[in-house]
């Protein structure tokens, strides 16, 4: 029975004709044009600024907009989507390696292929189908920004920048058949599965971790991405070139900017926590409002 279940999942996640025959095309793939990419990012930034300004005018400072179960439903949906993409690209990667290894086996191992696509790779087939699904899921991820604006009344620059760059980079992966994207999606969807599962866990009232769980997960993800980028650079010069290296270089610059911003936020968070801990030694009582704010920030 388990074998039959696995075969069914394998068919729908890696062998379905829509997946096997996928091709990234400006005329056939929704959201695949440069004009759509830039207009969607501009609309996202503009609409977030409008909502924040509108609430600042309409509501007095400190008041929040109750959202009920919407954040919990969103977190559960994103966790399930992330798990599906992770499983899909994992099975698709195994199938692609098995079917195309003859083409590059003399120059690369399977792990090297994950980091460095052979020159001439086209954005078609299984792994690019799931790369496209990941690209589309970034638009759903954007809703977290509106929850932050409505619940915390904050318009965080890092969140806006990170979400915009995430969409831009996932578009580049498809447009230029960029190397490293398979490992990047595997790492990202694994991290998002855990993060959104945790957010759903806390949103329904279950106990939260005693440390900033989400922030630390993002820190681990950025560290893994940094190590993989070094691997791509080494393989590019040692193995005769990697496909989409120009897009990868631009991607690396954007990832570096995100890493610096996140490190700045991470250091400030720890400094603020140290100050709070010192105050708690003198005033150990924590109000319900402070506890709720800490949970939302995580």
UniProtKB/TrEMBL annotation:
It comes from the Eukaryota. It is found in: Membrane. It is a multi-pass membrane protein. The chain crosses the membrane at residues 34-59, 71-91, 155-174, 180-201, 213-235, 247-267. Keywords: Fatty acid biosynthesis, Fatty acid metabolism, Lipid biosynthesis, Lipid metabolism, Membrane, Transferase, Transmembrane, Transmembrane helix. The keyword Ubl conjugation does not apply. InterPro entries: ELO_fam (IPR002076). The keyword Transmembrane helix applies. PANTHER family: ELONGATION OF FATTY ACIDS PROTEIN 3-LIKE (PTHR11157:SF11), FATTY ACID ACYL TRANSFERASE-RELATED (PTHR11157). This is Elongation of fatty acids protein 3-like.
